[in-house]
Amino acid sequence: GRTTSFSWSVSFTSLYNLLKAKLCPYFYVCTYQFTVLFRAAGLAGSDVITAVISPTTRGLREAMRNEGIEFSLPLVEETRSNTQKNSETNLATEVNRVSDDESFSWLEEMGVQDKIKKPDAISIKLRKEKNEVQVDHKPESVALVKGTNTFMLLNFLINCKSLVAAAGPQAGLPPTLLSPVAFRGATMQTLKARSINVKTPVHSCYNDIFSLEVTGPVMPHCLHTLTMLLKSAQKGAFSAVLYTHEPTAVFNTNTERILNKVSSLKGETMWKDLTKCGLHLKTLDQLIQLPTLGKSSIRLLEMRNYAYIWKS
Fold it and tell me: Measuring CA to CA, which residue among 56, 61, 71, 63 is closest to residue 160?
């Protein structure tokens, strides 16, 4: 009902304000259609607040554009730039640059322009739209919103009626907000942990193997804290199998393609500002780094002699 959506918007706004004040490092908005990751300035190599949305559709992107929200599709842009770089000849690159109007000028010179059907503005638009629709629901559809546009995104999400499912198990429920810190209207949730002890035969005796199964929304800071705990408790030797919520794996993409050279002094100031966000300083160190996993996520994490190896 209205009360639920009102209290949800209050909680959402509260979280955004905490993020802006660097008292919250990041939070998720989980809708039944897509997930949004809001990150504080200083995280993932960005000096402004960022919001990453995955997966997106043409309809959602169009609605965001209509609200004046500026965003980019980093993976689509990366593909485009790679395609241009890989053009085998300068001629191919030139053809890409020539506009649809210019490409018909040589036909006019030959006097055969009337015999060739020239694509009109509508068909050109349809072609572009087709290319855009091709990434819908895929990791490549990930959208990046930066700076003040994230506040516009907040208002857009609060007022977007389609975020609430009309039918199914989530019918009438507003999106879920997940955060490492407390916020207005939040409830404390604990992850479910189950320990299993298995005896495995080794030569003529049995060895005890202990495993810990942790289920629930395991957020990045939580995973890092667990690894620090296991590193100490298991004397630098353990392995972990991780199951990622697939649509969010793309959040590991480095969205800062063109990096502004942040001075070490500015970087240090940003780091200090984030020290009150509630995370362990070593975890914070990890989260301010540029993501390197791309569209994938860590599936297997192993530590041997205090050194990590992993598979994505």
Answer: 63
pTM: 0.79
Distant-in-sequence contacts of 73-80, Cβ < 8 A, 24+ apart: 73/135, 73/140, 73/141, 73/142, 73/143, 73/144, 74/142, 74/144, 74/253, 74/255, 74/257, 75/135, 75/139, 75/140, 75/142, 75/250, 75/253, 75/295, 76/135, 76/140, 76/141, 77/257, 78/257, 79/140
One-letter amino acid of 87:
S
Q: How far apart, in whole angstroms, are the C-alpha atoms of residue 64 and residue 157? A: 10
Beta strands in the chain (DSSP E): 26-30, 35-39, 50-54, 143-146, 176-178, 192-202, 205-215, 238-241, 300-304, 307-311
Domains of the chain, residue spans: 2-75+137-178, 192-311
The residue ranges of the chain whose pLDDT is under 70 are 1-6, 79-133, 257-271
CA dist., res. 184 & res. 175, Å (int)? 15
Question: How far apart, in whole angstroms, are the C-alpha atoms of residue 145 and residue 153?
Answer: 8
Phi-psi region of 216 (alpha: psi -120 to 50; beta: other; left: phi over 0): left
